[in-house]
């Protein structure tokens, strides 16, 4: 009974937050929120709270490594490299173990481990231990991601388009709040940022354990083939023929490589812009404000992206990916040409944010709708390759900044954005003929 009241309270808080945003920005369309099931709203509320906690820490990694641990910007890129490398392994493992372990154990268990690692970081200032803990954190967090995204697509199948988009908006608004808070908290203590993030992640893990267990009990009475069924039932119902899935190259390869280069481009904000701002006397508060701008644009820019999706320019998932790449490329070109003043970085962030808004929900929607019961596998594969971009970007940009300065960082980011655009175009070209993969219920893979 207590957990039910907690879920209702979380749902009420999220609705109040969004209604407050609606009063501030009357043009914002929240009609999609009303169509979602109540338990989906509870899930969104907890996910929003967790995104706030996570954002307190992650934008400040470069500052923490350089200012507190006394390492170079190249070393900061290296530690993010290891975190992303282990996240690649985690996503690949998570995508393949979904039906063996079950979503409850995978998601909640991984987040518990991740939270404990962050709390350990908060308790020490050892550089070698920091590398180990952050790498294992990347693995644990990576294991949970494909399972969590697939669970959403399976559990609320008929609402997944709206849910992926609303979940993206809520999470990123949480990131903007957390990033703003993170700059203030870090001014007091960097260790406190890791402690707060670890604490919120632990609470989120407990919530998911209770929530998914309750969902599984309800679903077992209604529908045996839901994603929250017991682990044994899941394993019996579905097995992967990995070779057959990997041979379907056109379905995932160009999309995943495009995602990889997109995330390489994205890393210039943390591993290029951050040290550039510090060198020019702009503090952590202004850097955190960039991410606040990112979150605000994600919220108030929804009418614009909705308009684009209704027009011929972006009325399909593949077109949305192309339009998103164009926005990202324009943002990169802008900050490459104009970055002498802070306001230009803000404008570049706004352009890049519109690219992000169109791309990330579109990828999850595409994989859910086109790959059916194989969605966890392909989400893990896509997430793994995307994390290669998260891994290479900081390493590449960190050393480029140390050797040649910020102009080299922005040039490499622009080239990466152009490659992503070409790959998404290739993906659209080779997938012109639709190949339905089923409705997302659990069933044996074709052999």
From TrEMBL:
InterPro entries: MFS, MFS_dom, MFS_trans_sf, MFS_Transporters, Tet-R_TetA/multi-R_MdtG-like
Transmembrane portions of the chain: 40-60, 80-99, 106-123, 129-154, 166-188, 194-212, 251-269, 289-308, 320-338, 344-367, 379-397, 403-425
GO cellular component, one term: plasma membrane
Keyword Ion transport carried by entry: no
UniProt-annotated location(s): Cell membrane
Keywords on record: Cell membrane, Membrane, Transmembrane, Transmembrane helix, Transport
Top-rank taxon, per record: Bacteria
Domain Major facilitator superfamily (MFS) profile residues, every copy: 15-432
Protein's name according to its UniProt entry: Putative MFS family arabinose efflux permease
Gene source species: Paenibacillus cellulosilyticus
Higher taxonomy: Bacteria, Bacillati, Bacillota, Bacilli, Bacillales
């Amino acid at each position: 009974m207590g957990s039910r009241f907690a879920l209702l309270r979380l749902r009420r808080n999220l609705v109040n937050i969004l209604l407050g945003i609606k009063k501030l920005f009357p043009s914002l369309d929240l009609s999609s929120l009303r169509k979602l099931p109540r338990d989906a709203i509870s899930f969104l509320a907890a996910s929003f709270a967790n995104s706030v906690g996570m954002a307190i820490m992650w934008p400040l990694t470069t500052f923490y490594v350089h200012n507190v641990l006394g390492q170079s910007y190249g070393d900061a890129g290296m530690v993010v490299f290891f975190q992303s490398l282990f996240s690649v392994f985690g996503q690949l493992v998570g995508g393949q173990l979904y039906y063996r372990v079950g979503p409850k154990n995978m998601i909640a268990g991984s987040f518990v481990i991740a939270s404990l690692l962050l709390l350990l970081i908060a308790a020490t200032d050892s550089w070698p231990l920091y590398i180990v803990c952050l790498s294992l954190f990347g693995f644990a967090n990576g294991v949970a991601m494909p399972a969590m995204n697939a669970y959403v697509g399976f559990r609320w199948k008929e609402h997944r388009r709206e849910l992926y988009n609303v979940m993206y908006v809520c999470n990123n608004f949480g990131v903007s709040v957390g990033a703003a808070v993170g700059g203030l908290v870090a001014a007091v203590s960097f260790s406190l940022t890791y402690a707060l993030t670890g604490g919120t992640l632990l609470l989120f893990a407990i919530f998911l354990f209770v929530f998914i267990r309750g969902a599984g009990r309800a679903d077992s009475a209604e529908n045996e083939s839901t994603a929250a069924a017991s682990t044994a039932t899941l394993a019996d119902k579905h097995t992967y023929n990995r070779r057959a899935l990997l041979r379907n190259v056109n379905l995932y390869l160009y999309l995943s490589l495009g995602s990889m280069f997109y995330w390489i481009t994205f890393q210039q904000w943390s591993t290029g812009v951050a040290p550039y701002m510090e060198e020019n006397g702009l503090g952590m508060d202004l850097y955190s404000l960039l991410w606040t701008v990112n979150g605000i644009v994600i919220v108030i820019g929804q009418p614009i992206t909705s308009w684009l999706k209704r027009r011929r320019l972006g009325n399909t998932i593949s077109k949305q990916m192309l339009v998103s790449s164009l926005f990202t490329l324009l943002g990169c070109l802008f900050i490459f040409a104009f970055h002498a003043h802070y306001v230009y970085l803000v404008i570049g962030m706004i352009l890049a944010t519109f690219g992000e808004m169109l791309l990330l929900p579109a990828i999850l929607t595409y994989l859910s709708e086109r790959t059916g019961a194989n969605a966890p596998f392909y989400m893990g594969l896509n997430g793994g390759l995307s994390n290669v971009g998260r891994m290479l970007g900081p390493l590449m940009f960190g050393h480029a900044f140390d050797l040649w300065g910020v102009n080299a960082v922005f040039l490499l980011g622009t080239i990466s954005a152009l490659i992503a655009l070409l790959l998404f175009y290739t993906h659209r070209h080779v997938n012109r003929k639709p190949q339905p993969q089923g409705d997302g219920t659990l069933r044996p893979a074709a052999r």
